[in-house]
């Protein structure tokens, strides 16, 4: 821990303009981890990767890491992520663009940020990771898989699928004066859908590709929601087609 204190005190001495603390509300416990990681598809900043897992060292880290002045929101690529993990969940994440000397924090605000605050940590807390992208057809399958991963010592955290909608189906509308564009169709559909479900239980989309690109004389509208909607929605001269159960992807992060 003495090495960490020395590094951060040296950084603080060379970074006198910073005022705001990046982690001021964090309550550290034995499950807390601070992870700095490069983009998965770009290793430009892999040399800065680090992980701090000791509670006392994390307390020192969060005391000294500072933000500069708030600036207009803008980021660039490649970038570098700084994450707080607690109980195998990412509870906070910040996106740093080192060459622009700025960071966007979880609330959407952007600040000046000096990368030299964390640039040396890899030497003492080296870190690398891998990601598994898994597709699930049912929420229960995802929950079972997650429980298995949480038992593994190298498991860090994951990005969960939403499973907001059970599935989707399509309705084809012939282009006409009544249906001149997708917006008119969606306004037409709304009352029918609301007779079956509340507004937050479904979504209606127009996808520009596929059949909508191949056949310009029609509009195919995608409706997302429960199977109940597909079964119960009845509109004269229109047909519900191509029911597809939702498949969603989750991303699981592990320490190498």
Overview of this protein structure:
By secondary structure, the protein is of the alpha+beta class. It is built from six helices and 16 strands. The chain has helices at 2-13, 55-64, 139-149, 182-194, 211-214, 227-232; strands spanning 20-21, 33-38, 50-52, 66-67, 70-71, 80-86, 89-97, 102-104, 110-112, 129-136, 155-159, 167-174, 203-206, 218-225, 240-245, 248-255. The protein has a seven-stranded antiparallel beta sheet. A four-stranded antiparallel beta sheet has the order 13-14-12-15. The chain has a three-stranded antiparallel beta sheet with strand order 10-16-11, with helices on one face. The two termini are 23 Å apart. Residues 9-19 have low confidence and may be disordered.
- Helices and strands, in N-to-C order? HEEEHEEEEEEEHEEHEHEHEE
Beta-strand share of residues = 25-35%
- The total strand number stands at 16
Give me the side-by-side strand order of the main sheet.
3-2-6-7-8-9-5
Q: Low-confidence parts lasting 5 or more residues at pLDDT below 50?
A: 9-19
Radius of gyration: 24 Å
End-to-end C-alpha gap:
23 Å
Helical content stands at 10-25%
Shape annotation: elongated
Structural class: alpha+beta
User: What kind of oligomer do you see?
Assistant: single chain
Q: Could you tell me the mean pLDDT? A: 89
Report the major sheet. Answer: 7 strands, antiparallel
Total of helices:
6
């Amino acid at each position: 821990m003495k090495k960490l204190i020395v590094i951060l005190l040296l950084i603080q001495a060379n970074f006198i303009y910073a005022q705001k603390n990046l982690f001021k509300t964090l309550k550290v416990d034995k499950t807390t981890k601070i992870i700095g990681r490069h983009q998965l598809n770009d290793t430009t900043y892999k040399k800065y990767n680090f992980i701090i897992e000791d509670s006392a060292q994390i307390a020192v880290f969060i005391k000294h890491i500072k933000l500069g002045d708030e600036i207009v929101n803008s980021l660039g690529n490649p970038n570098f992520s700084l994450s707080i993990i607690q109980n195998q969940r990412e509870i906070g994440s910040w996106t740093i663009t080192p060459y622009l000397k700025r960071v966007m924090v979880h609330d959407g605000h952007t600040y000046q940020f000096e990368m030299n605050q964390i640039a040396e940590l890899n030497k003492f807390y080296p870190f690398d990771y891998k990601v598994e992208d898994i597709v699930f057809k049912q929420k229960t399958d995802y929950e079972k898989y997650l429980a298995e991963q949480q038992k593994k010592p190298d498991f860090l955290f994951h990005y969960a699928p939403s499973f907001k909608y059970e599935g989707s189906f399509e309705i084809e509308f012939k282009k006409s004066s009544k249906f001149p564009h997708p917006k008119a169709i969606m306004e037409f559909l709304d009352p029918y859908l609301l007779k079956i479900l509340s507004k937050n239980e479904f979504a209606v989309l127009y996808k520009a590709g596929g059949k909508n690109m191949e056949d310009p004389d029609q509009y195919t509208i995608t409706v997302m929601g429960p199977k109940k909607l597909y079964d119960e929605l009845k509109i004269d001269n229109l047909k519900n087609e191509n029911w597809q159960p939702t498949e969603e992807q989750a991303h699981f992060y592990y320490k190498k």
